[in-house]
Each structure stands twice: as structure tokens, then as C-alpha cells.
Amino acid sequence: MALQAKAKVKLSRSLGVPLTPKAAKYMERRPYPPGQHGRGRKKESDYKNQLMEKQRLRAQYNLSERQLRNTYEEAVRRSGKTGEVLVGLLESRLDAFVLRAGFARTIYQSRQFVNHGHLTVNGRKVDIPSYRLKPGDFVQVKKKSRSMTPFQLAAAGAWASEQTPGYVETHLEGLTARFLAVPERRQVPVICDEQLIVEYYSK
Q1: How many whole angstroms separate alpha carbon 52 and alpha carbon 194?
Q2: H or E segment at 138?
Q3: What b/e sequence results for 154-186 when a residue is b if at least 16 CB atoms lie within 10 Å of its CB, and e otherwise?
């Protein structure tokens, strides 16, 4: 296992969230945190629980602390429950959408695809992972990129079976997808207690 892959497995075990398919398989065999005290039960403080949930959310979207905080501050300014709005904003990111549409295997690969200019939004190239999609936007893999092995696998449905929620309309054969709506929290397949994250940032 490469060093980077090992690091992602270790992070996944620490957070209790499989961040890659390889990590998911590893966690099935060892469903406890790494280290000699990984199997032991520890009394957790409220702050530590809040911090853990924040780190879980950050890891699942592969965000920096600044990116997550900025999105939280935007969520505070909007109407609705802050935690649910926060998740909806994160799920509207282009890199998150590419993952949900089944065009990428992991959030890391999805971000790489966007950074390298393989995606268009409404026919225009967008290479900014944090680009915010609006309901009705079309996302497509560029024609000259579709012959690449990862996109050929995506077109064959290699990652779509567990990645396509109801707010994403996907046509894998053409590697196109539409962002139907900003999702409700219950629709979003991320593992976290967003209320604890709100408590963490509101202190």
C-alpha cells in the first residue's frame, strides 16, 4: 500500500469514516481507531466530540480548515438551520457533485479531475473545485477526456451504484449529469452530526 494510501486509511480509521474504497475494505477488517489504544473506550468531552464531527466533515469533502469555516460563515448568513444549510452548500461544490454523479472514485480523484480541466459546466470549462453549482446546471466530461481509463470506467458504471443520490440526474454513457436541486440533509451521504459542528464554530 502506498504511503499516501496508508495515510488515508489511518485517517479513515481515526475518524470512523471510510474516505476511499480501500479504506472501507480495511475498516471492515479493523473497525477501530489505529494505535495500541484503538480498541479501548475513552471518555470524550463535548469539545472533543464537536471537533471530531468537524474533522469528519472536512475529510469527507477534502477541505482546508479555512474553506470549511468560510462555508460555515456563509451558512450562518442564510435562512434555515445552519448545519443543514452548511451541508447543502458543501454538496453544491463541483468536486462533490462530480463524485456523487459517479464520474470519480473518491473526492480526491474528483478534485484532481476538476483541477486538470476535464469538466465543463453548461458547456464552459470550470477548473475550480469549489465552484458552486446552481439547480439546473449541467456538468459534462470534456470530449477529449472521455477516452481516459478513469472516465471509461465511470461510463461503465464502475462507481455509480452507491454514489448517485436523488438530487443528481446522471447519464453515464455520455458522462453528463444535471444538478437538480440543493439537497436536503437527509439526502446527503456524508457521516457527521452537523449540529455539533455548529456548536464547535459558534463558541
Answers
A1: 11
A2: strand 138-141
A3: bbeeebbeebbeebbebebeebbbbbeebbeee
Whether the Cβ atoms of residue 29 and residue 43 lie closer than 8 Å to each other: no
Dist. CA 150–CA 155, nearest whole Å: 9
Hey, what's the cell of 52? 471530531
Distance of alpha carbon 31 from the chain centroid? 21
Q: What is the pLDDT of residue 160?
A: 80
The answer to whether 20 touches 107, Cβ cutoff 8 Å, is: no
Residue closest to 2 by CA, chosen among 17, 18, 20? 20
Give the pLDDT mean for 154-158: 94
Domain with 151 in it? 93-181
- Dig out the grid coordinates for 41 from the structure: 473506550
CA distance 93 to 70: 13
Give the C-alpha separation, 130 to 94, whole Å.
6
pTM, 2 dp: 0.83
Look at the chain and report how many structural domains it folds into.
Answer: 1
- Could you tell me how far CA 105 lies from the centroid of its own chain? 11
CATH number for the domain including 102?
Answer: 3.10.290.10
Q: For 25-42, what is each residue's pLDDT tens digit?
A: 555 555 555 554 444 455
